[in-house]
Every structure is written in structure tokens, then in C-alpha cells.
Amino acid sequence: MSFKAILGIVGCCLFLGAASKSSAQMGGPVSVTLGQERDKYNIDGEFTSPVSPKTAWDVLTDYANLSKFVSSIHSHIRGKNGKDFLVHQVAGGGFLFITVSVEVLLEVHEKPFTSIRMKDVSGKDFKSYSGVWGIHPAPGGVHVTYKLKIERNEKTPGFINGDLLRNTTKDLLSQVRKEMERRETKKAEMNQETPVNHAIKK
């Protein structure tokens, strides 16, 4: 079964035990650690990427197009008030004829180019669900952090456990970083295009 986006539900938001920033080298592997106490999970993830803070920000706040670069997740903006958003996200997967999904209705607060805080206000599939994305300057790019705290309730699907949360968070961060670097490369290619010189007819 594949539930790669359950975290991101995240979105961003999109599940996190602490990891050292020095352990994540530019372009190195995504780092994810998980702490668990009964039905409570704390997930910490991080990665570095050779992109500008603006590119990183644009990807993390692209709620409406999240499904285009993060698999198995659907995201829709329900409302906006200044720097605050209400975002509905559904993540799911299936095997043969069985499909299962989880959903959250996130209150999202943005601090431009610095952090994105989110909290589920629906209480549908989790007793509590809150997290934060962080963007930090790094030599040659940015250091992105992701923290999520969730607590199960009686409606939380049984397949959600520590191993799944760790793996889906790693997939989420890997796909987000890939999109950041794709957009940064596209910008660089556009900037390198040589202007067309038109001859002046006499």
C-alpha cells in the first residue's frame, strides 16, 4: 500500500524527534527521525537544497498544486484571510480493490520566507495534528525543516503507525526538494537564454 503523502497533509503541512542540522549536507539525503509515546507521534525532518529562499517558499506555499509534485495527496484552498489560509487536504492509497484515506482541514499561518505553521481544526481523523515548515539560510542554498505532532483518535486508520509516518515523511520531503530544484533549474535556464537580436532594416 502506498500512502506517501500522509504527512504532508500535511502540508504541508503538509509528523516529527530532533535531528542535527549539521547532519544534513547540501544535496545530501533527507533526514527524518520519529519519537513515539503511545498514540502520540513527533516527527522531525530536514534537508538542504541549492535553491533560493523564494523558490523554496513558492513550492511550500503552492497548496493548490501540491498534488502535481507530491503523490497521493489532494489539496484545496477553502479560504484566505491575509497571511492565513484554510486548506483541506486528503491523502490516501490503496491495494487491489481497497482504498483508504485520511483528511485534515488545516489552519495555515505564513511568516513569509521563514515559516509555515499549520493545525488541523476538523478533528476528523486525528485527535490533534499540528506542524511547521521552516526555511533557514544555508551556504549555497537553504536548509528546510519540517516538524509534525499528531495524536491518534478512535477514527485514525489502523495502518497509520510509526514506520509508515517515518517513510511517508521521507517521501514527502524528497518530493518537495525535487520540485524546488526543478523550479530553480528552470529559472536558471530562462535567465541564461540569449536575447534575440533583430536586424534593423534600412
Please describe what this structure looks like.
The protein has two helices and eight strands, in the order ββαββββββα. It has a single domain, classed as Alpha-D-Glucose-1,6-Bisphosphate, Chain A, domain 4, CATH 3.30.530. Helix 1 crosses helix 2. Strands 1-2-8-7-6-5-4-3 form an eight-stranded antiparallel β-sheet, with helices on one face. The chain starts with 30 loop residues before the first strand and ends in a 10-residue tail after the last helix. The N terminus and C terminus are likely disordered. The protein is globular.
List keywords for this structure.
single chain; 202 residues; Alpha-D-Glucose-1,6-Bisphosphate, Chain A, domain 4; 8-stranded antiparallel β-sheet; 2 helices; disordered N terminus; disordered C terminus
Under CATH, the topology can be stated as Alpha-D-Glucose-1,6-Bisphosphate, Chain A, domain 4
Q: How many individual β-strands?
A: 8
Q: Averaged pLDDT, please?
A: 83
Oligomer: single chain
The percent range for helix content is 10-25%
Q: What is the name of the CATH architecture?
A: 2-Layer Sandwich
Largest sheet features:
8 strands, antiparallel
Strand-residue fraction?
A: 35-45%
The secondary-structure element order is: EEHEEEEEEH
Distance between the termini: 69 Å
Q: Which regions contain 5 or more consecutive residues with pLDDT less than 50? A: 1-25, 198-202
Helix vs. strand class: alpha+beta
Strand order of the largest sheet: 1-2-8-7-6-5-4-3
Rg from Cα:
18 Å
- State the CATH superfamily name: START domain
- The CATH class is identified as Alpha Beta
Domains (count): 1
* Backbone shape: globular
